[in-house]
Amino acid sequence: MKKQWQMLHPDEQTVRLLERETGCPPLIARLLAIRGIFTGCQAKRFLTPLLRDLASPLEMTGIPAAVDRIHRALTAREKILVFGDYDADGVTATAVLVSFLRQCGARVVYHIPYRMADGYGLGADFINGRARRIGTNLIITVDCGSSSHEAVRLASQLGIDTIVTDHHPVDRAPEAAVAVINPSGPDGQAGLAHLAGVGVAFYLVVALRAHLREKGFWQSRPEPNLKQLCDLVALGTVADVSPLILDNRTLTAAGLEQINGGFRPGIRALMRTSGAPEASADAQTIAFKLAPRINAAGRMAHARMACELLLTDDRRKANRLAAALGRLNGRRQAMESDLLQSILDRFDRRPKLLDRPVLVVHGNHWHAGVLGIVASRLARQFHRPSIVLATSNGTAKGSARSVEGIDISAALSRCEDLLDRFGGHPLAAGLGLATDRLDDFTSRLEAVVEEMAARRETGPTLSIDAHLPLDGVTPELMEGLERLGPFGQGNPHPLFVDTGIRVKECRTVGESHRRMVLESGQSGNGALPAIQFNVPENLPVADRFEKIAYRPQWNHWNGKKHLQVVIEDVVPEP
To answer: Is the whole-model pTM more than 0.90?
Structure first.
């Protein structure tokens, strides 16, 4: 689908003010203004994110009651069970809380559901089963629990207290919980609604450490350094595609510093087995190297493997688990590719399916572990919401992914009477329903999405930050750009445009990527390596481009780094 190019125009007076007050170059001042930075004070905090500037955890409802209850559990030597989720956010949130509680000397165990058999969230069967059997006194959920009304109520009736920590939007929280900490819940705080599940768990730990300090708890044991947990927070935050703004950006920056320090054996092993550049990880490294391997455990086997990797101090165990996750990720990639191709073949046979505002596809016994990834790839390729469902024994379960401007969670809520369950975010959700309702559900959802789509711009948009000739991409520029990171959702890597580009070299790498050497027609000074990913087969190789949209980056290879540009879009010369 053709992309619409949109040049961004910040207020010039603000740009000049930022130049004066920060001393930064005009281009960096422009990029700051585009990112909503309007004063010198804001700019200094943005360019130097510090943990001491984080919002107080006491701003979140439920924190005081939660830390008081955990303190009582620690003092009375009660058994604490941390209940997590099987994605990277849930796994890292589990690791954060378990790691801290172990440092407190707690009697703590953890449980992460098995995706294939247990499904998502805390259920009554678990309460009646394992929680009761092992003599649990306190359950703390991470990255889940806000919709577990029945399970929390049953736990209370059995004398088991529950603290819910979560970040998924809900209209009503479990009333039987001792505390509910959810910045996206009915009593949440909009200023912290951007936190991932691991971020909420970290905030609980920050408040708990301070509470225990007031009670004199650390007089008899070392007080933990919480910066050492920020690597886990960064990993879960980026993996969950949470916006890298405000506290998320600060925590991710601190976490990347920890990751590049090589302090955690599990992450160090994961970096090595994934081929990530040593000591130069960024948010892209997490998104494309580390997170897929953490998620592969929950998708293809059991997420406990990934959690053990993150918790272990044993290097040999870490290496063994990281290698196993690498193999699982390879299997996941193969299954994902096969399923995606079978769906694309279906579209080739029935092209009218692509005329619909939302893609709903289902198949018998498709592997549950790859449905979400395939839905993401469909949404990205066809720029519309996509739902991929596996059917079995009269039920359909799967994942939905959306595009900017269409809130898939809100769309599903308007089909609630046809669904057995659903939940998620504006861009991603999970759902389940009876197969005999699939046709009615698809028809209803198409009407809802069509209505939503009428209120948004059609087609994907490329927001261009500035015009920058290729010969302006220098190590000095990269140093300035790096201060604007970490880049990701909510804080995109700067995107530039250049015109009159000569293609000096071009070759295909992999199945559909093009490596090029480009030269700016504006000056003709020097040439720069470039790569364009997932180039359509029918796009001819050009000698010149009228203009290109690109992102500069360092290419790390064999211990060295070289400048290159990643091409987001091109307009060939007519």
So the answer is: yes
